[in-house]
Amino acid sequence: MKKSQIIIFLFTCALTASAIIFYKKNPTLTVPTITSTSEKEVVYADPYVTLKMLTGENKNDVLVVDMRSNKDYERNRFKNTVNIFFPYEKDRDKEKAFIKAVEKEAKKHKQIVLLPYSGMSTTGEDAASILLEAGIENIAIMKAGWNELYSLPHMWIPEEVGDFSLTKVLENL
């Protein structure tokens, strides 16, 4: 393992441990808020808070838009999410269809959270930028993508926080 990989791993472990300690002390949840600026900043949503909301009383306040392909979405997905595919290659017609579909959902929810394949790619930022340009401002991007949440859930979701577990929000296993 390279030295930079070890440093990143240790940093991630420390970040996860601090998140677990924080959530055990303060497990209250609220809708992730958007603070709009004149520059229309891209905002990020906390995975734990967002996924916890999908199973709570206020599950209709937030909508997670899973941007993966229909095939991948049908195989495994989080409950109470909607699949709206985002074109990863530049295609203006598909982007317009994406904007129209998200716009329809945005009117029904306080917060729209985009879930790309990976938090390491720029597709979440690309999609958010397109939506912000279209005037949809209640948009956030999940800090972790589907791959990270599904493959390494406890890097993002504390193992023991009340009665919440990631398996409660997964469908089609």
Characterization of this structure:
With 173 residues, this protein is of the alpha/beta class. It has one domain (3-171): Oxidized Rhodanese, domain 1. Helix content is 39%, strand content 13%. It has helices spanning 3-25, 47-53, 70-75, 92-106, 123-133, 146-151; strands at residues 44-45, 62-66, 77-78, 81-83, 111-115, 139-142, 170-171. Strands 1-6-5-2-4 form a five-stranded parallel beta sheet. A two-stranded antiparallel ribbon has the order 3-7. The chain is globular, with a radius of gyration of 16 Å.
Question: Could you give a short description of this structure?
Answer:
By secondary structure, this protein is of the alpha/beta class. Helices cover 39% and strands 13% of the residues. It has one domain: Oxidized Rhodanese, domain 1 (3-Layer(aba) Sandwich).
Keywords:
alpha/beta; 5-stranded parallel sheet
Average per-residue pLDDT, rounded, comes to 78
Rg for CA atoms: 16 Å
**Care to count the β-strands?**
7
The appropriate CATH architecture is: 3-Layer(aba) Sandwich
**Main sheet specs:** 5 strands, parallel
For the record, the CATH class is Alpha Beta
Q: What do we call the CATH homologous superfamily?
A: Rhodanese-like domain
Range of helix content: 25-40%
Give the low-confidence spans: 24-38
* End-to-end C-alpha gap: 32 Å
